[in-house]
Amino acid sequence: MKIEEYCSRLSWYLVTIPAGSKGPTKFGWQKPEQALSDPDAAREYYELNPTHNVGLLHGASGTCAVDIDNVENTKLIFEELGINFSDLMNSAPQIIGRENRGKLLFKAPSDLITHRISWPVKTDPRKTEVVFELRAGSVQDVLPPSIHPDTGRPYEWSGMPIWDGLPELPPQLLTLWREWDKFRPQLQDICPWKKKAEFQPTRKPRPKGDSTSVIDTFNEAHDMHTLLVQYGYKPTSRNRYLSPNSSSGLAGVKLFDDGRAYSHHASDPFDSAHSFDAFELYLQYEHQGNVSKAVKDAAHLLNVTQDPDYEYDKEAIEHGAKIADQILSKPKKAKQGSMENVPEDLLSVPGILQDVVNYYTVTAIKPQPQFAVQAAIAYGSVVMGRRWVTDQRNFSSLYFLNIGETGSGKEHTKTVLEELLEASGLDELIGPAGYTSAAGVISTLTKKPTHVSVVDELGRQLKSAAAKGNQHKADALTSIMECFGRQDGTLRQQGYATNTMKASEAEKLEKVVKRPSLTLVGMSTPSEFMQAIGGGDVASGLLNRFVIVKSEIGVQLSQKKRRSNISERLAAWSKEHAHAQIGDLDLGNAHDMPPHPIDVPFTGEAETLLRSYEEKLVDAIRRETGTGLEAMYNRSREIAMRLSLIISRSMGQDEIGADAMQWSIDYVDYYAKQTIEMFRSNMAEGPFDSCCKAVYSKIEKSGLAGITESQISRTVSAFANMEPRRRKEVFAALQEDRGIEYRQTNEGQKGRARFAYFAPPQH
User: Fold this and answer.
1) Which domains does the chain have, with CATH numbers?
2) Is the pTM of this model over 0.85?
3) Residue 609 and residue 549: Cα distance in Å, rounded?
4) pLDDT tens digit string along 247-267?
């Protein structure tokens, strides 16, 4: 490479630097007219001064540099702000001079100036060290092939080639550059070893009058993280969010430990000098700044006394409401097969069962709004059990499956259901954490004909049931399937040979349960579940009995654990719906003597909606015929009818009206479609591709230690069940497509060599 090529091919302005130095000494070097921009002049100068270094004058050249002095700390800052550090490092040419440092070059607007962020030294907070610089304007950076004065080695280019021109400065970095004064306190605050954050926005003044009833109760009952996600704020790290109206991609919303948040986004309703709380989110997004309406509705929702009149900053509210309206009216593009952008009305439950959602939200250390709704419906399902029925003989019992990553918080459903049932004096409705055989299913139902079972890692159990030699678990699933359709009938134990038994022993085996009422809540990780169903086993008859919800909220850091009590109205509702009614002479609740159920009829409007939904289902089934997915719609109508029974009673209605029916149809239909798209993607991928993906995931997670074939077999069932020939094909595909390596690593047990698979290093 010749130095004059910087001028001829890139039109850069160069500054001359004496040998053994990183800085120019020529007077007025910052001025473009003093720089070398003519290729011939540059060639002549460096022919005469071959040992001199060369620098890039940014302002005149239309360039800038992200100068990273500490890679680890810079990565921490950028990823807190929602900037993918790995993607950034691969997005531009780099100048390398010393280890653990880097300098990225971009095109830049001419008006940018240089900014720097420094943190206190971890070992000595009295001192500071530079983390990174945003360099632009009248500054220069040393270019290859200059010699670094400290290392004695030449600077080098890394990453993308430079001769095709520099990439544009990413919008996230441009926003950070232009709004540096706003963001700088945040960047300082990110430092993990700082004793106290420098940045703490002021709070808005509390409303006039006694406002402790509605607003404080609302804030206590609602988790800020959950509401932010609900209204479109995207979490990028443990306490930072991207505004739904942001065009920069920079996470400018910070959530504080006290449950309040602050926004740096100019395009956000809360861009001010003040922090905001959960009620203010509700005020803007649900009521577009109408304070009196927000308070009234919140009071009704929480069943508390309405606050006296008060005044807010009207100008700020009007501005925020305008932006909130823009965000709400903005069309959202959902990814195919994604669970993002769930309709707002499906993130809450009509009526009293919203109290379950609120309890879930308040007590969760890892909030999951979609699972909170599932928990509320499951609670209504088990409480109403055998005692409520529609005029078309639909009982309330439903099956649910929550799919979420490990560490995402899906396990909280079990805690919520058990705590609320116990608080209502209904602990007899709490069933086992799964079943290992058909006998186990019917045995539990004979003792508890109405109960809820929360099954952790249902995906793993499905895989186990499909494996050879696990007939008992397979039979358990068969009984669960049968139980779903026997709610208005009788569940009988599988037949056994009794000719060699005593009559008393044979009688014990002949168990029956009349009107069994099983509410099942399963949980699984995406990988376990997709491996369990294979490449096309989605229409087995079991899965279409479930309302399946896959959360896109991944692994979360735990929030502060909070306590809450069951609301009095929910406790009263629970007892009313679980126990026999006053005047009901049939108090039976034994497995062979069910109680007389209370009828809840459908209105004409509800039946019309149901008929219309059935017609849509028929069309959908026809469209999917031959794909293997059509069976997933077969029970949608029945599930919607059962759900409408729960919702109507949650709303305090004595009949199932259009509102309860419509919400139920919307809920069932939304998740049925999402589930089918998830299955379609898995089927398109195929079992082999799915296995390759699972194997690569294990190799990648093993890191520098690597992973052996036997270790993979123990953790990936699809791989374990493959023939040796197919296993080799998996590794061959991953070597070609993903670049995995097979090599000897540290010695294994007893001094034997250990050979393992490794993922390629990430640059």
Assistant:
1) 5-189 (no CATH), 202-329 (3.90.580), 344-681 (3.40.50.300), 685-758 (1.10.10)
2) no
3) 24
4) 667 788 888 877 888 887 667
